[in-house]
Specification:
Length: 102
């Protein structure tokens, strides 16, 4: 994903910031969009459970039998920890965009 310019939207800016921290998200545009929505909807209040719900929604389309498509609080702690880097990226993107500072 290229750097934002004057023709990009506020959504593109969130996508760009997320892919800077997690380049692999560029290969999963639907998941990237779910996380970009969290940047704007939850901002600094995003939780690992929110990230897991977004991931579960995305994963349920391609692998509905995936063993981690269960409520966040039912996941093993080591699996729960996998969501934290994305929480951090979402919160950082929101902060960089000035979202949540109202």
């Amino acid at each position: 994903m290229t750097a934002p310019d004057h023709t990009t939207t506020y959504v593109d800016h969130a996508r760009h910031l997320l892919t800077q921290r997690h380049p692999d998200l560029a290969d999963e545009p639907v998941l990237l969009d779910h996380y970009a929505l969290l940047v704007h909807a939850k901002a600094g209040a995003t939780t690992p459970g929110d990230v897991h719900d977004a991931w579960s929604l995305w994963r349920s389309r391609s692998r509905p039998d995936h063993r981690s498509i269960i409520p966040f609080n039912q996941l093993a702690h080591d699996v729960q920890r996998l969501d934290q880097p994305y929480v951090d990226a979402i919160r950082a993107a929101a902060a960089a965009l000035g979202i949540g500072r109202r």
